[in-house]
Design goal:
With 484 residues, the protein is an alpha/beta fold. It has eleven helices and 20 strands.
Length: 484
Amino acid sequence: MTLTRIFKAIVAVVAASLIGLVAVPSQANVTPSQTINESTVGMQMFMWNWKSLATECRTQLGPAGVNWILVMPPQQSIDGGSWWTHYQPTAYTLDSNLGSEADFTRMVSSCNEAGVDVIADAVINHMASGSYSFPEVPYTNTNFHYFSPTHNCQADIQNYSNVTEVQDCQLGGLVDLATEEPYVQGKIAGYLNHLLSLGVKGFRVDAAKHIPVADLAAIKAQLTDQSAFFVNEVIGGPPEPTTYYQIGALFSFDWSSGLKSAFGTFNGASDLDVPNSQYRGMGTSNLEVTMVTNHDTERNGSALTYADGKRYLMGMIYTLSEPFGDPMLYSGYAFSDFNEAPVLKSGLNVCNSGAGVKSSYVQGQMICVDRWTAVQGMIRWHKFVNGETKVNHWSNNNSYGYGRGAKGYVLFNSAASTQKYKGIKTGLAAGNYCDVVSGGKTPVIISKGKRVCRGLTVVVAKGGVMATTLPSMTALAIATYSKR
């Protein structure tokens, strides 16, 4: 059974009326050095500048339970107002229109203190187009494949089935570094070590498939922290993506495209009651970063985006409910033009208001999913059920549910109408439970001396069977900690 077929059977989303956020405790006492794995939750913070991120980590990301963030490339790049200018580096100094080195250092410190690790986007395959001289590094023409005596290529990549061409030729006119040279490896390692010295905990290797694994291994061997987390951007092959496991994790683009295929329409779930079948061929769980979207897929139409509304949130709920992979969510901004950057106010990023999906967004403002009630609720649920296998699978023609051990249960309604459920075995003790999708991180509150639900109340009867009602395209998740 393919991943796409599995996903197509699950269509879920949080109820249209979301409950507001509540104050949650800070993660300030959490040790900032964390291992990124299935138990943690990451978020790509696309085009957030350093001063804005420092505040967001302290006031929102840390309290929401986000463990790590992927930030923009911090190195100096070409001038311009488009987002992609940050992927055309001109030097390894840490000054850009996102902030100075001092701003970056303060941001990393602020995030670490909030319990949020910083992963930096590392553009090390190439330099900016238009020149082969970068005196601030310094690089000269001898450091590029265009002039290489052994790996020479003086053209852009044409044949993506030819590994030599993929790794020696230029990607869209960007001048390709001769990463097999010890001198180039040393310069890149020095740059990454500088970031590590400032508190960065790892790197996203941009265009990793265009760098031979042996070259990346030689660079990584020179790092001062051999435990630094690496996640590689390898979209398809050749080369075979899993060969990059020796460097670190991979982004799971199959997961992202599967969500896009699944959640575009209503689908049934009658064929889903097969434990874990959807993970076949997906790779090694703790070495796959499962994402709903990123900055590229958001723009090329291959993934769900904020414009998909409830379906976008549904993809996040599903990703956080599954035991496979190291989940990474995404915080970008509303845009109408491929090239545009976010709009700033007093030099800072601005969030679209609200605690959930909206029908429209202010162009240029950030889509701050870390503030959404359902996301915060599912982050806590994800961590709580970590390590528990999928049990008590249940499905009919339009709905699908499963438990995570004896700790929690999740149910998706993919029908075009409200559905009533009864007799679903959850594996939980009898009682009234508060849904974390509609209730958030703190689904049980005290009101007039009584424990009440902030969102939907779910009844689990004797024998652990559940009865509830769900509107069209909604999901619920309950856990032992959400028992009222």
